[in-house]
């Protein structure tokens, strides 16, 4: 029986992934876990201390800088539509890539978000299995699908050098299967393991039950009935697209965010305690005499007077708030801005656009790498889907590329004129001109050359039709 234990690199990175995901989820999720705000006196198990800790955690403010930064980074990538061009055989992927109505752009958005959170993920290309059917010719009406797997679902993998090239030979995916019963109106959730193998140069897929004792095996074939010579799984990462674990781009920010959360708890606790005044009294009379002349005790804020004896005095003392905790709080906020939260903060009015680009260059280089890696991995998955649906992939006719222009860089009239002159002089091709115009924000990213040529042809035909006939 196989033992599906997570790979060592997976186990080491898992706490960081969960930290980032919990920070992104917000204060409610972070407060569920006491490890992020330890009890001040953990050895004291009394009900009073437990109640005090509950209030201590409730007063702490979690400022979700991590989540806001993630939203800003996603918005920077998807501020423009991805460049997308597919052959007719897989055009359905544009609107329904994974079989549940998820479009290719939404699939890529999930992947970019996962890459920001965990630094890795992957796409599995699969063909819906039909019981009793083994050939592609008998699977009419069904389509190859692309499924996205987050970092926590990819528990084990292996790469080996085959014919001088490092190739993926094993991937183990943890899946959660939920089945709803219309009779009992109950939902049953089970776990299964999907194992992708390269056996003797041939791709094989196995699905093991939770106990690992039983499994089903299929050897997928392409449109022409040939077995695949590679695993139909495409990794993407924050640094590169190999199977190794890349560090989460948001982990450093999440670490500081949690420390800021702890400093906030200290500040709020200090403010709660120091804001409560304490009354100190001195008197020359005994306790029994004091109780006799003040039968109702003493109440702060009361309009009545009190008998403190001949030389008695009363002083209301209120402690000053500690400045150290507030200083630490401000330091954490500045550190978060340095790490990456700057991208969602408005710049000052005196700051030029070029200064902003320079100041954010490190953030954009990471974000640009992520966008490029996800684009490449998803294109490989699309090509594998074409092998299912078309036999031979159309690499030239397949385009998928996420936006990497994270700032408004609209071309000026002079820039456009210069590009046109380069085209007229034969230095660049018309396709290069249009590509530059798309990147400059003059043309929409989803307006392909074919679409523009068709519209221009229609306009010319309309001009010829409407042109009046001149007399001889």
Describe the structure using short key phrases:
472 residues; 13 helices; 12 strands; 18% strand
Lateral arrangement of strands in the main beta sheet: 4-5-6-7-8
Mean pLDDT: 82
Q: What is the beta-strand fraction? A: 15-25%
SSE order: HHHHEHEEEEEEEEHEHEHHHEHHH
Our Rg estimate from Cα atoms comes to 32 Å
Shape: elongated
Distance between the termini: 93 Å
Structural class: alpha+beta
Major sheet summary line:
5 strands, antiparallel
Indicate the low-confidence ranges by residue numbers: 130-137, 341-356, 358-363
**Count of DSSP-assigned helices:** 13
Number of strands: 12
| Helix fraction by DSSP (H/I, runs of at least 4) | 25-40%
Describe this entry's structure for a reader:
The chain has 472 residues and is of the alpha+beta class. Helix content is 40%, strand content 18%. The protein has 13 helices and twelve strands. A hairpin with a 6-residue loop joins strand 7 and strand 8. It is elongated and about 110 Å long.
Helix-strand blueprint:
Layout: H1 8-25, H2 27-31, H3 47-59, H4 65-77, E1 83-85, H5 104-118, E2 120-126, E3 145-150, E4 154-162, E5 165-181, E6 186-199, E7 202-208, E8 215-218, E9 233-237, H6 251-274, E10 278-282, H7 287-293, E11 313-317, H8 323-339, H9 353-359, H10 361-389, E12 399-401, H11 413-424, H12 430-439, H13 449-466
Antiparallel strand pairs: 1-12, 2-3, 2-9, 4-5, 5-6, 6-7, 7-8, 10-11
């Amino acid at each position: 029986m196989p033992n599906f234990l997570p790979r060592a690199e997976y186990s080491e990175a898992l706490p960081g992934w969960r930290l980032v995901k919990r920070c992104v989820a917000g204060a409610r999720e972070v407060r569920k876990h006491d490890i992020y705000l330890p009890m001040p006196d953990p050895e004291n198990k009394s009900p009073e201390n437990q109640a005090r800790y509950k209030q201590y955690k409730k007063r702490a403010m979690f400022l979700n800088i991590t989540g806001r930064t993630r939203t800003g980074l996603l918005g920077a990538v998807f501020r423009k539509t991805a460049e997308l061009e597919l052959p007719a055989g897989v055009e359905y992927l544009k609107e329904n890539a994974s079989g549940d109505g998820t479009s290719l752009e939404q699939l890529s958005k999930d992947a970019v978000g996962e890459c920001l959170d965990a630094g890795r993920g992957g796409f599995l290309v699969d063909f819906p299995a039909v019981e009793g059917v083994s050939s592609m010719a008998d699977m009419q009406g069904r389509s190859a699908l692309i499924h996205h797997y987050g970092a926590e679902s990819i528990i084990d993998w292996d790469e080996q050098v085959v014919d001088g090239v490092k190739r993926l030979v094993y991937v183990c995916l943890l899946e959660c299967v939920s089945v709803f019963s219309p009779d009992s109106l109950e939902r049953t959730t089970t776990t299964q393991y999907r194992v992708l193998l390269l056996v003797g140069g041939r791709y094989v897929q196995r699905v093991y039950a939770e106990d690992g004792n039983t499994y089903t095996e299929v050897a997928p074939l392409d449109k022409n009935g040939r077995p695949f010579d590679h695993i139909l799984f495409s990794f993407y990462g924050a640094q590169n697209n190999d199977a190794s674990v890349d560090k989460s781009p948001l982990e450093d920010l999440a670490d500081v965010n949690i420390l800021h959360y702890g400093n906030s708890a200290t500040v709020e606790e200090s403010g709660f305690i120091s804001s409560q005044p304490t009354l100190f009294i001195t008197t020359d009379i005994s306790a029994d005499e004091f109780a006799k002349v003040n039968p109702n005790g003493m109440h702060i804020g009361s309009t009545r007077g009190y008998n403190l004896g001949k030389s008695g005095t009363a002083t209301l003392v209120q402690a000053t708030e500690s400045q150290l905790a507030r200083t630490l709080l401000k330091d954490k906020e500045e550190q978060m801005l340095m790490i990456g939260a700057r991208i969602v903060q408005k710049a000052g009015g005196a700051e030029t656009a070029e200064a902003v680009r320079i100041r954010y260059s490190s953030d954009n280089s990471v974000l640009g790498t992520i966008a490029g890696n996800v684009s490449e991995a998803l294109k490989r998955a699309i090509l594998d889907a074409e092998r299912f649906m078309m036999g031979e992939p159309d690499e030239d006719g397949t385009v998928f590329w996420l936006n990497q222009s994270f700032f408004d860089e609209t071309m000026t009239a002079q820039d456009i004129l210069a590009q046109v002159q380069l085209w007229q002089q034969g230095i660049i091709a018309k396709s290069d001109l249009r590509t530059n115009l798309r990147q400059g924000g003059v043309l929409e990213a989803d307006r392909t050359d074919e679409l523009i040529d068709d519209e221009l042809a229609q306009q010319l035909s309309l001009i010829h039709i409407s042109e009046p006939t001149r007399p001889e």
